Amino acid sequence: MSTTATDLSPAAAAFDVRPTDVPLADAEREALMASPTFGTVFTDHMARVTWTADAGWHDRRVEKHGPLLLSPASAVLHYGQEVFEGLKGYRHADGSVWTFRPQANAARFQASARRLALPELPVEDFLGSIEALVRADRAWVPSGEETSLYLRPFMYASETFLGVRPSREAEYVVIASPVGPYFSGGVKPVSIWVAQDYHRAGPGGTGAAKCGGNYAASLLPQQAAYAQGCEQVCFLDAATNTFLEELGGMNVFVVLASGEVVTPGLNGSILEGVTRSSILTLLQEAGHAVTERPVPLAELLDGLADGTVTEVFACGTAAVVTPIGRLAGDGFDLTVAGGATGAVTSAVRTRLTDIQYGRTPDSHGWMHRLV
Ligand code: COI
């Protein structure tokens, strides 16, 4: 059941709140929140939990947002043993603040940690840390259209040790950032460059984990996308260089003229997106046939050429539902849906955000009250 504004959950109460002695003045905070660009402005506090192999998880606290003390020999700086999550706090019309399916993020965080040989954070600590932080920084949750408080939980190997083995110390931290739309142009169709020379992840690799290394691997191809005048890169599978996998930080959906919607199936190298799974449910409820299966790039290109593919969109916590208006790669450059936002994309985006912002009843029990 959701918590109410007055009852702090036991999981959040386990966090010792040590308020900053230098909170930002109201006027300064409001100025920063007036048009928040994604990931550039941070709140007054952060939540933390420390882990050691001997003591387990301990020292749950909310403290001043600030630099982390890290030895230059910390394992994360050398071997990239790190995982993260992304979720949002949404302000509803009555002033309450809610988040979306945080249990799913908590479970994925555990799965990512397992893959990176990091300790698994208990679900209660994941939920408690978010609630405790958002309560401390509730004034930072924006209320404008398309705005939210982006929450970034992460964990890194903090042991001072250069041997290559799993760290015996880890630090879990949550930071928060008031945000507007992920893409600087606002909510409008984006252009995609399909990478045919680079892959994001391979069979047996870390593609299904949300770890920094996957995103690091996407940056050079992302630069190639920029060089081609595109905003995002789309990866193909490493084994055959044939099937769509995902974008640099988003899942991808293809809408067919028949009304069917297809998305690459979870093959072990695709991130199991919370937005992806929610969209599958919402599309089904709207009467669409939805299919998770391998999607050949060739099928997509043929479909765009002959009209059997009518829309393509990307989705993720940060990107929500983002229409794709152009798909380019070596030897092709195609306009999608006339470069506009298609009807299916638009409808599922509205349905999802209406739930997230409390504009429609949450019949799935997806929303979790924080404040
Ligand atoms: C998210 O959608 O929350 C992500 O983590 C994707 C990106 C911002 C890295």
What do these coordinates show?
- The protein is globular, with a radius of gyration of 21 Å.
- The protein is of the alpha+beta class and 371 residues long.
- It has helices at 10-13, 26-33, 75-79, 102-115, 123-136, 212-227, 274-285, 297-306, 343-356; strands spanning 16-17, 45-52, 56-64, 82-84, 87-91, 97-100, 148-157, 169-179, 190-195, 232-236, 244-247, 251-256, 261-263, 290-292, 309-316, 320-329, 332-335, 367-369.
- Helix 6 links the parallel strand 9 (190-195) and strand 10 (232-236).
- The protein is built from nine helices and 18 strands.
- Helix content is 26%, strand content 28%.
- Strands 1, 2, 3, 4, 5, 6, 7, 8 and 18 form a nine-stranded mixed sheet that branches.
- The protein binds 2-OXO-4-methylpentanoic acid (COI).
- 2-OXO-4-methylpentanoic acid is lined by residues 86, 215, 249, 316-318.
Distance between the termini: 14 Å
- Note poorly predicted spans: none
Radius of gyration: 21 Å
Q: Can you identify the CATH superfamily of the largest domain? A: Aminotransferase class 4, branched-chain amino acid transferase, N-terminal domain
Order of helices and strands: HEHEEHEEEHHEEEHEEEEHEHEEEHE
Largest sheet: 9 strands, mixed
Topology-level CATH name of the largest domain = D-amino Acid Aminotransferase, Chain A, domain 1
Query: How many distinct helices?
Result: 9
- Summarize the amount of helix as a percent range: 25-40%
Small-molecule binders here are: 2-OXO-4-methylpentanoic acid
* CATH architectural group of the largest domain: 2-Layer Sandwich
Highest-level CATH class of the largest domain:
Alpha Beta
Structural class: alpha+beta
Number of domains: 2
Q: Quote the beta fraction.
A: 25-35%
Q: What gross morphology would you assign? A: globular
Number of strands: 18
Summarize model confidence as the mean pLDDT. 96
